[in-house]
């Protein structure tokens, strides 16, 4: 019996007292073994038959647990060769001190970027959009919603809102919103970004190809022109398993806010 199998059965023994249905116990044992790194990305899972006979449970129960984990993205099944621990997402490290675009961030890392359009058009603004962008109810808002994909992996859903006076034809932007804004002299020079934790709803999870309910990051960016006017109000959902946001911290100088 493989080392992976031993690890799973050790976890299964620990959860045997829980009284939970057997398939849930097995699912949790496999998940725990993966999360604790006892079995790693690419490791083969023992066969359905081996697990069933060693744990003394039916193959139907094993199949149910394994199918759940495949659906949840923890395991992958390769036709003809078996079931494996899914490869781990390579994390993107993103500085929080530079005002860059998604296209620039990914290009710097040598990743191929593309976007799938979810929505683009002119709409009556929502109360939030009116407040942030300083629009009145008889003005229009340009909405640009995209699934952002790098090296074929969906990383984020970004929903940008701008005044229609700045972006009168949202369908005309190419692959980069910031590049389009640059051509009309509206590229932002400063932004305030708010990051919070979010559990992904069904629709977002499906687009990002992750299990529903999994942890993600909600990011709101409000960006400004040099004149101080708000130019962009973007709300995004990023995959929690793909991003590390990194900020450099310095001791503040004399007279600066926050000095102890
Ligand atoms: C980042 C920001 C968004 C911004 C986008 C522009 O991802 N979070 O607020 O709209 O970059 O990216 P691009 O110019 O590639 O469309």
UniProtKB/TrEMBL annotation:
UniProt KW keywords: DNA-binding, Transcription, Transcription regulation
GO molecular function, one term: DNA binding
Example GO BP: negative regulation of DNA-templated transcription
InterPro entries: Bact_HTH_transcr_reg, Chorismate_lyase_/UTRA_dom_sf, Tscrpt_reg_HTH_GntR, UTRA, WH-like_DNA-bd_sf, WH_DNA-bd_sf
Full protein name: GntR family transcriptional regulator
HTH gntR-type domain: residues covered: 20-88
Gene3D superfamilies from the UniProt entry: Chorismate lyase-like, Winged helix-like DNA-binding domain superfamily/Winged helix DNA-binding domain
Organism in which the protein naturally occurs: Mesorhizobium muleiense
Domain of life: Bacteria
